[in-house]
Amino acid sequence: QMEELSLMATESLHSNHTIWFGHFPTSTIISPAPGIRTLMSSATAYLCGHLHTMGGLMPALHTQHRGGTLELELGDWKDNRKYRILAFDHDLFSFADLNFEEWPVVLITNPKSFLYSSSAHEPLVRILHSTHIRILAFSPSVITSVEVYIDGVHLGSARRVSGPLYVLKWSPQNYSEGFHHIDVTVQDASGRISTRGHIFAMEENLSLRFGFLPSLILLADHYILARVLFGLIVLLQIALLIVFRCLQKPALKEKPGLLTLTSYSLHVFSKTNTFYYSVLVLNLYTILGPWFVGELIDGQVGACFSFGVFVGGAFFQGSMTFLVGILQMLFFNVPLMAYLCWCLLQRCQGHSFRSHLRHLRRRLPAALVHLAMALLLAWQVYSCYFLQRTYGTLAFFLSPMRTWLVVLTSALIYKTWTLKSSELRTYIVEIKNCQSY
């Protein structure tokens, strides 16, 4: 694919402009050296979707690559009816992101927005030598007026040249220094009014940057960040298990606080072979073993790992798999270990599962802990159903990280409450001695 794209990029080098289209933002695309951004560096813009507006949190998810290529997410058409108009005016690229059936539509093509300018791809000096402000205005009704303002001063009414093009004479030399703001207000015969504006400048050495969050979302290589974060979470939990397994259990000499009890529960958990080895293997398997085996694409059985997918005799590096792994760790593996530690501590303090059920009102915090774990387990069960619906029955049954984990979790929880008291005798005695202070 990189070779094919490289050939297309080479063929387009002699064009005035090149626009790239793709579904995914570059931050989520895995590509071999020199990388997809370098490959498209001769392009004016890359238009993509997938993230859209992130549920409305990022209405303008736009940024610019180091080489000057714009990366422009667009809101979705399916639910929000977003669309985009692109225009080239004397090789100056402009665009507007719009809502369907909101009129009039306005796009200022000269002077173009400074934020979306690139001296590497556009002859920006043409703005300074231009004779007219140029505007595209569309409406189902007749456009009755196009008013132009710069820095709050009314410059006049633009006249229609042909089609949607409206122009107004100006003297760009009056705005040759610093930033300036242009606003255009368009009214149609139906009485609808629309205003659009942006910041422009003639000096190329000025600086105007895109927002930090949009740039972070679109420019950071998220699959690398997700890979590192996933690995750190898994290794941290494994390290915690091993450290508490090797550390000598401290003696409790007085009524312990929350931090001491938490540490004590980790000692009990790590020094009980059933739980220690089960959770240790679970975490090692999460990072190394196949999560499920199933029909990943039509007619092709494959295996999904945290680090990628084997299917059709080929291996594909993981990206979203690491994100799924992070969610699995944060919302199941880690809470499961915390819950099992808490259950063992309850056993050491002389409680049983039945006593919790009998005294729910008096032990509301305990009831909430059980409820939280029940909800997480229900989420895990639902993920098994979702896996079956997505990848078929084979994936449901051959899924250690989904179906089998539900069985393992149920067995471990059952084990905490049915473990013989003799196996916890040392801890029970020590806790009782502390409670007698």
Which secondary structure elements does this structure contain, and how are they paired or packed?
Layout: H1 2-11, E1 19-21, H2 36-39, E2 45-48, E3 62-64, E4 70-73, E5 82-89, E6 92-99, E7 105-110, H3 125-128, E8 132-138, E9 143-150, E10 153-157, E11 159-162, E12 165-169, E13 179-188, E14 193-201, H4 212-219, H5 222-246, H6 258-270, H7 273-288, E15 292-297, E16 300-305, E17 308-311, E18 314-317, H8 320-348, H9 353-358, H10 364-391, H11 393-397, H12 403-418, H13 425-435
Parallel strand pairs: 1-2, 2-4
Antiparallel strand pairs: 3-4, 5-6, 7-8, 8-12, 9-10, 9-13, 11-12, 13-14, 15-16, 16-17, 17-18
Transmembrane segments: 224-244, 275-293, 322-345, 366-388, 394-414
Pfam family, one: TMEM62_C
InterPro entries: Ig-like_fold, Ig_TMM62, Metallo-depent_PP-like, TMEM62_C
